[in-house]
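Look over what follows to help learners.
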Amino acid sequence: MPPEAALCEIGYCDVDTSDGDKIGQPVGMLVNPNRPMPPEARAIHHISDRDLVDAPSIDTGLITLNHPSVDVFVAHNMAFEREFFTGGAKNWICTLKVGRRLWPECPSHSNQCLRYYLGIELDDALAMPPHRAAPDAYVTAHILVEAFKAGASLADMIVWSAGPSLLPRVTFGKHRGQAWKDLPGDYLDWIVRKSDMDADTKFTARHHLEERRKAAAWP
C-alpha cells in the first residue's frame, strides 16, 4: 500500500441474517483525505478534489461505518480494506476468498464478475458504477447472500476468511491456467515442500493433497 494512500469514500450495505438475509439500501459517504487526488486514482473512481473539499473527515466516516449494531464486517478483498479500517475486534468475511472456494470455475473472482457469473440481477442505479463504495458494497452484499444459498455458514466463511486463500487456478509455471484439483500429486507435493512459495499457493496445494488422501481412504 503506498504511504500516501487514503480513504476518499466510505460505503456499506447491511445484510440482516435474522430476517431471511434481507439486504438493505447501500449508503455512500465521501470523506476528505486532506491531500490531492492522484490522477491514477481518479481514473478508477472519478472522484475529484472539488468533490471532497467540503466532505467530512475520514474519522467521521469510520465512526459511521463502525456502528454498534454490526456483528461481522464483510468486504471483497478483505486484506485491502483492512489496510484502512480494521473493524476492531469484530470478525470479518472476505467474499473474494469465499467466492474462490464456492465457485472455483468462475473465470474471475472480482466483485462484478461474480455478480454476472451467479446471475445476480440488480438495479444499476444501486449497483453501478464499479469502484464506488456504495455500489461495490451492494454487490458484495448480494454475493454474501448467494454464499448462504450455496450452503456456506457464517462460521464457515469467517474461518475461510481468516486463513490463506484457496486458489482456483495455477498462475505460474508449466501448469499455468489449470485447475489446482487437476494437478499431478507429485507436483502438489513439490509445492508444499518448496520453501519460497507464498502462503496461498502452499495452502492450496496442501488442501488438494489432503482431499486426495481422504478420497483414497474412503471405503
About this structure: The first helix runs from residue 39 to 45. The first strand starts at residue 9 and ends at 12. DSSP finds eleven helices and six strands in the chain.
